[in-house]
């Protein structure tokens, strides 16, 4: 054992001394197990005997048994995995006070070992299983993503504790769209980790509105536009005459990547890792395929697209705007999936409907929120499409009460309307 303990040079992806110290600390203070087990797993240990000891500790805790020497030995013997030397090493080691630092080191080395194992996975997928390059990339990137996502599972808490936490927390900042009346409708802006459907009839201005929001948000956050309806050079031409933070605005189109949901998901994960993308627009859902779907039901196939994107929003803490054209079937069913699928609508955190306020020749558009999982104002708003800039503006009538006092009476001066005829670009 001592040879193993001392054999921790920089070329080895494990630290036996740290693993031993963590287990010794748990034996010295069993309550630590609940704290450590939230993130530490059996597979994080390299030395097999230490894996068995930690697994036995978990078993004892699950069965409401004491985590001590005698019960550990009994459980290990029962499973034919008792190692007397390993147990002696744990019992004679000095407990540590800073378990967090040791935990982070053991977790980091475990991740590095997993990364090394990916090379063997790639060899197996390509040489033995005969998988396509796309399938290999998909598998590897999913495993990489799993390494990045914390496996911690929060234990349930009482509502009293949850309310106390809420009262002391700082709410995460909202993402402003940069359009005054829309941000007011959203009670300040968009909450993160949401899949948002924005739907409407053909030529109503869905893409114009989302491109405008995307450009505004790019003033502070990194954004990504999947332009499947129009080549990227046309979008570049349109935006070349406007001023905005071009370095924060990323774009891809059908010529750069496929339209399958698996390709889109991989690209989103990659852009989140490399550039910390916060806001994404997909134009449009009608162009997305789902070639890897194993079922036969077309409605389920379509719904899985939204389910995949909804999971990404939660995992990566991003906002995805999915543009969809409303069909007659949607109008009849009251859905906004573009395919008449209520299952797709279920996955969306919010549904925003844009429609002609009067008729198709009018520049006014009505904006309504049909579904929401954040605080919003459901009263519809009206935006006006400016013909020259091809951008939406909000005309807001503001009133101010003015009082002029004299010695006898308070004289009331009638409110005077003022107009905000442009977009306030105020991003947090």
What's the structural blueprint in terms of helices and strands?
Blueprint (H helix, E strand, L loop, with lengths): L1 H5 L9 H13 L3 H6 L10 H15 L6 H10 L5 H9 L6 H30 L4 H16 L10 H10 L11 H6 L8 E7 L5 H12 L5 E5 L4 H8 L9 E5 L7 H15 L3 E5 L14 H19 L2 E7 L2 H6 L8 H6 L2 E7 L7 E8 L9 E6 L4 E3 L3 E2 L3 E4 L4 E4 L4 E2 L9
Parallel strand pairs: 1-5, 1-6, 2-3, 2-4, 4-5
Antiparallel strand pairs: 6-7, 7-8, 8-9, 10-13, 11-12
Helix pairs in contact: 2-6, 2-7, 4-5, 7-8, 8-13, 13-14
Q: Mind explaining what this structure looks like?
A:
By secondary structure, the protein is α/β, with parallel strands linked by helices. The chain folds into 2 domains: 1-169, Orthogonal Bundle (DNAb Helicase, Chain A), CATH 1.10.860.10; 180-396, P-loop containing nucleotide triphosphate hydrolases (Rossmann fold), CATH 3.40.50.300. It has helices at residues 2-6, 16-28, 32-37, 48-62, 69-78, 84-92, 99-128, 133-148, 159-168, 180-185, 206-217, 232-239, 261-275, 298-316, 328-333, 342-347, and strands spanning 194-200, 223-227, 249-253, 279-283, 319-325, 350-356, 364-371, 381-386, 391-393, 397-398, 402-405, 410-413, 418-419. The strands form 3 sheets. It has a 9-stranded mixed β-sheet with strand order 3-2-4-5-1-6-7-8-9. A two-stranded antiparallel ribbon has the order 10-13. The longest helix has 30 residues, at 99-128. The relative contact order is 0.10.
